[in-house]
Specification:
Elements (H helix, E strand, L loop, with lengths): L1 H9 L2 H22 L5 H4 L1 H21 L2 H26 L1 E3 L2 E4 L5 H17 L7 H19 L4 H17 L4 H26 L4 H8 L6 H11 L10 H12 L11 H4 L13 H34 L3 H26 L16 H21 L14
Antiparallel strand pairs: 1-2
Helix pairs in contact: 2-4, 2-14, 4-16, 5-6, 5-7, 6-7, 6-8, 6-15, 6-16, 7-8, 8-15, 9-10, 9-11, 12-14, 14-15, 14-16, 15-16
Length: 395
């Protein structure tokens, strides 16, 4: 019991408080967005989010008190292998929802794969001598296998968010830096070429010429539509660009203090589709009803997670702990940035939820488990007073 209390004292309670505050914010705005849904089951999704958070809190504490080194030694490879097996299984027997096969019974394997890839990559690249070309190929394999399986669902957003998380780990581990910089340059060039091709095709008056250009674009039809909306947001306000336009109106109409809880007109009048208002576009509901100040509060709470998390990574003398924390923080930041930016029209629309706030059981539990691991790093490698040093110190 004394050891358990000692571990609790070493937790970063600012991080914990900010995480719980964001979850409460999620419950509040899921309740608000769900108030216009047609069925009791959909209107009560806020209860599902709250009960999931209670279960996730137990997961969070369990991972926090567990020594992350034991978790990586015993679980990194098995969890990675199991997540890949589930990604294969979901393609065979998974449930089709919203145009993709992403659900295996009651959970999404792709969400579990995000954390599994980070844990395995950190475990592999913290080993000495992992800074050559072979290690770079190993990193490509760790990323490539799950990413290809996720793309097959199809889920481009999840596949893309895996990339910066693994790249951040490789950069922090200094794995063949020249190769990583080259890879980043090639990736940016490829993305630029895809955007140029879509832009060129949409400006082409000849339908046959347009079709020829699209043959060279390695994307599905719905993904091309999203890029089209991003590049030409005013071209189809009542069609493919409708949701983005209504989200932008919702965000802009919130003003400084917002319209008040459950008083957002875009949601109440059905302009912002109810099918996305509780998950992918919940930021638009939050911004309309709580205004600029509510958005500032949300961003401040996320900084209360990312800032302490970064401090934990910097202070950690163990490479594995440092790399795990960096990968998890990158994952959270990418979700935050992309979700907010797509509601503003700054990036193409992707199905990435807003961490802790969007409705979604699997993702919420995975995030809380991930932050539990961050707390485990803080507990077992925190800087302690001289009279209470019972953790390994840097040499």
């Amino acid at each position: 019991m004394k050891e358990f209390l000692s571990k609790l004292r070493r937790m970063d309670w600012i991080l914990s408080a900010c995480m719980m505050a964001l979850i409460v914010m999620g419950v509040v705005f899921i309740n608000s967005a769900g108030s216009v849904r047609p069925t009791d089951a959909l209107r009560s999704l806020w209860r599902v989010h709250a009960s999931t958070a209670l279960f996730g809190l137990a997961v969070y504490m369990a991972f926090a008190v567990l020594d992350y080194r034991k978790l990586l030694d015993l679980g990194a490879l098995p969890v990675f292998a199991l997540s890949c097996a589930m990604l294969v299984l979901v393609l065979v027997v998974g449930t089709d929802r919203f145009g993709g096969r992403r659900w295996l019974w009651f959970f999404q394997p792709s969400e579990i794969a995000k954390l599994a890839v980070i844990l395995f990559a950190a475990h592999v690249f913290a080993a000495p001598g992992r800074n050559d070309f072979r290690s770079f190929l190993a990193g490509a394999a760790i990323l490539g296998g799950p990413a290809v399986l996720v793309l097959a669902e199809p889920d481009l957003g999840t596949a893309l968010v895996l990339v910066p998380s693994v790249l951040a780990i490789l950069l922090a581990a200094r794995v063949w830096l020249k190769g990583l910089v080259t890879l980043l340059a090639v990736g940016l060039l490829a993305a630029g070429l895809v955007l140029w091709a879509v832009d060129r095709a949409e400006r082409e008056p000849d339908p046959d010429a347009r079709a020829k250009i699209y043959r060279f674009v390695p994307l599905r039809e719905h993904q091309i539509k999203r890029l089209r909306v991003f590049l030409f947001p005013e071209s189809d306000r009542t069609g493919d660009g409708y949701t983005l336009r209504q989200a932008q109106i919702a965000v802009g109409s919130g003003g400084i203090w917002g319209k008040g809880l459950k008083k957002g007109s875009q949601k109440l009048l059905g302009y912002l589709p109810s099918t996305v208002s509780m998950n992918d576009f919940i930021f638009a509901v939050l911004a309309e009803e709580s205004g600029f100040m509510g958005v500032l509060l949300m961003l401040a709470l996320f900084m209360g997670i990312l800032g302490p998390g970064l401090r934990i990574a910097i202070r950690c003398p163990d490479d594995r702990g440092r790399l795990v924390v960096i990968g998890i923080l990158t994952l959270i930041f990418c979700h935050l940035y992309v979700n907010v930016a797509m509601s503003l029209g700054l990036v193409p629309i992707t199905g990435l939820p807003l961490p802790f706030i969007s409705a979604g059981r699997t993702f919420l539990i995975v995030l809380m488990a991930a932050l539990g691991i961050v707390q485990s790093v803080a507990i077992h490698h925190a800087e302690l007073p001289d009279d209470d040093r019972d953790v390994e110190q840097p040499t």
